[in-house]
Amino acid sequence: QVQLRESGPGLVKPSQTLALTCTVSGGSITAHNSYCSWIRQPPGKGLEWMGLIAYDGTTVYSPSLKSRTSISRDTSKNQFTLQLSSVTPEDTAVYYCASLNAGLWGQGTQVTVSS
């Protein structure tokens, strides 16, 4: 059974870079047709898809966040990471990582942007 777990700081200062890691167990992020994604949900708002990294390392980003978002991976650790630069309080949200092909999500991690 594939499991995903997000980790990273819960508090980030404005203008800094938010960095989160998703550790995947029970399945390889390099397996054919593996698509690993980041999604977030700001308080009181709906889910927002941020981007994905495919099994071959290809990345796709939401157009609205593309200029600030980078998704990478460490295949030796079976992890993929999210970096969101120049954060503002509007980036406060619960951040989820997900395996799109497995249809499974992590439990989510709260990130607050505040000085």
What does this entry look like structurally?
This protein is mainly beta. 0% of the residues lie in helices and 50% in strands. It has strands spanning 3-7, 11-12, 18-25, 35-41, 48-54, 59-61, 69-74, 79-84, 93-99, 104-105, 109-113. Strands 2, 4, 5, 6, 9, 10 and 11 form a 7-stranded mixed beta sheet that branches. Strands 1-3-8-7 form a 4-stranded antiparallel beta sheet, with no helix packed on it. Strand 4 (35-41) and strand 5 form a beta hairpin. The protein is globular and about 40 Å long. The mean pLDDT is 97.
Overall 3D form: globular
- From the alpha-carbon coordinates, what is the Rg to the nearest angstrom? 13 Å
Number of strands: 11
Number of helices: 0
- Biggest sheet record: 7 strands, mixed
What level of helicity do the residues show? under 10%
Strand % is over 45%
What string gives the helices and strands in order? EEEEEEEEEEE
Could you list the spans in which at least 5 consecutive residues all have pLDDT below 50?
A: none
Structural class comes to: mainly beta
Overall average pLDDT: 97
Alpha carbon gap, first and last residue: 39 Å
Topology at a glance:
Blueprint: E1 3-7, E2 11-12, E3 18-25, E4 35-41, E5 48-54, E6 59-61, E7 69-74, E8 79-84, E9 93-99, E10 104-105, E11 109-113
Parallel strand pairs: 2-11
Antiparallel strand pairs: 1-3, 3-8, 4-5, 4-9, 5-6, 7-8, 9-10, 9-11
Entry summary:
0% of the residues lie in helices and 50% in strands. The chain is built from no helices and 11 strands.
